[in-house]
């Protein structure tokens, strides 16, 4: 254990002396978040309206969908109100079970207290649709009324969505590119082969490298979360320890993939395209920069099983939803399965020379 500790400290010192490594590992992810912070993805011309329809009548929902200024999302009452509290909806309309436009019924409209301008316009549009439905049937009957309730939300921003995703992306790149390129270079220079004839157990060297990179990973998580809260007003309500556990599990997956690639490749020219083939699809399809909800059905199903998807969703749920390890157990199980597979492949593929 003493030898492993000495090798780990030496590896950490070697890493900290490489300015390029610090730049790519810590400063580049922060720069990406800073760059995207200037892009206001939330300023759309449409108002997001969640609709919970307990009634068999679909006239009102159909009429609301015809209003171009409204983006209609339907779901259960629990899901829509939860989305409203997270700031993902401007309004939520609750249609009662026996609702009919021809009767003087009362509908409940929940308003996002943090978005008064949108809610005011949205309420006027909904009332106009109700008036038009009544007028089509009989101009003399009383119109349905809207009973409004204000709901305080956390009003999550794009940065809240982006930062955990960029952190997951950074963990993937550090694990795959950092390990694959550095160990291919060590093999090419014959350094790993020379370790086999020294008193040092080569496995201790590998273990120290893994521990060092996991320590750097924990620093990444702490720095990214801290900088997000201080610089970008990140709405962090989860547990940092839970994030570290999920991040370490994800780090093991991508470190093992990096070792497998370094075993397969004989030079930097070989490892680069292999690493890009693995990382690029996950970077664009795992919900790092944008939600996966817009992906077509089969693509959405396939990306559900990407290791980066498990990692990004787990970190994001803990950071901004306040989820516990029990809540993100599906992501933990997915990462564990990937860890077993990737470690097995790494053991079989890794070569010392």
Protein model, in words:
- The structure is a single chain.
- With 353 residues, this protein is an alpha/beta fold.
- The chain is 63% helix and 9% strand.
- The protein has 13 helices and five strands.
- It has helices at 2-16, 19-36, 59-65, 77-85, 116-137, 158-188, 191-195, 202-231, 240-264, 268-285, 297-303, 307-321, 329-349; strands at 47-53, 70-74, 91-95, 106-112, 145-151.
- Strand 1, helix 3 (59-65) and strand 2 (70-74) form a beta-alpha-beta unit.
- Helix 2 runs parallel beside helix 8 (202-231).
- The longest helix has 31 residues, at 158-188.
- The chain is elongated and about 95 Å long.
Short note summarizing the structure:
It contains 13 helices and 5 strands. By secondary structure, it is α/β, with parallel strands linked by helices.
Protein traits:
353 residues, alpha/beta, five-stranded mixed β-sheet, 5 strands, 63% helix, 9% strand
Molecular shape: elongated
Can you give the mean pLDDT?
Answer: 82
User: Alpha-carbon distance between the termini?
Assistant: 26 Å
Number of extended strands: 5
Helix and strand pattern: HHEHEHEEHEHHHHHHHH
Sheet of most strands: 5 strands, mixed
Lateral strand order in the biggest sheet: 2-1-3-4-5
Number of DSSP helical runs: 13
Gyration radius, to the nearest Å? 26 Å
Unreliable residue runs: none
What structural class do helix, strand and pairing data support? Answer: alpha/beta
Q: Tell me the strand percentage band.
A: 5-15%
């Amino acid at each position: 254990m003493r030898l492993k500790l000495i090798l780990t400290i030496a590896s950490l010192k070697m890493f900290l002396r490489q300015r390029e490594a610090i730049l790519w590992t810590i400063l580049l992810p922060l720069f990406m978040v800073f760059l995207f912070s200037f892009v206001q993805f939330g300023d759309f011309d449409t108002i997001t309206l969640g609709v919970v329809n307990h009634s068999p009548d679909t006239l009102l929902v159909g009429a609301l969908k015809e209003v171009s200024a409204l983006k209609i999302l339907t779901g259960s009452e629990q899901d829509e109100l939860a989305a409203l509290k997270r700031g993902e909806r401007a309004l939520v309309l609750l249609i009662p079970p026996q609702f009919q436009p021809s009767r003087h019924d009362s509908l409940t409209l929940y308003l996002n207290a943090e978005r008064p301008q949108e809610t005011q316009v949205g309420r006027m549009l909904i009332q106009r649709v109700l008036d038009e439905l009544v007028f089509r049937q009989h101009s003399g009957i009383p119109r349905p009324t809207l009973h409004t309730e204000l709901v305080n939300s956390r009003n999550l921003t794009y940065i809240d969505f982006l930062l955990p995703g960029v952190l997951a992306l950074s963990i993937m790149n550090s694990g795959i590119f950092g390990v694959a390129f550095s160990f291919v270079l060590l093999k090419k220079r014959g350094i790993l082969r020379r370790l086999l004839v020294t008193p040092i157990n080569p496995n201790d060297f590998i273990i120290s490298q893994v521990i060092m990179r996991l320590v750097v990973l924990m620093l990444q998580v702490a720095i990214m979360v801290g900088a997000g809260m201080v610089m970008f007003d990140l709405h962090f309500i989860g547990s940092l320890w839970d994030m570290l556990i999920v991040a370490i599990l994800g780090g093991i997956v991508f470190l093992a993939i990096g070792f497998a690639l370094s075993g397969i490749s004989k030079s930097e020219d070989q490892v680069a395209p292999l690493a890009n083939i693995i990382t690029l699809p996950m970077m664009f399809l795992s919900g790092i920069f944008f939600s996966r909800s817009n992906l077509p059905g089969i693509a959405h199903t396939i990306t559900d099983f990407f290791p980066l998807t498990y990692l990004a969703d787990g970190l994001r749920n803990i950071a901004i939803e306040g989820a516990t390890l029990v809540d993100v157990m599906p992501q933990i199980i997915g990462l564990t399965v990937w860890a077993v597979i990737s470690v097995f492949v790494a053991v079989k593929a890794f070569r010392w020379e």
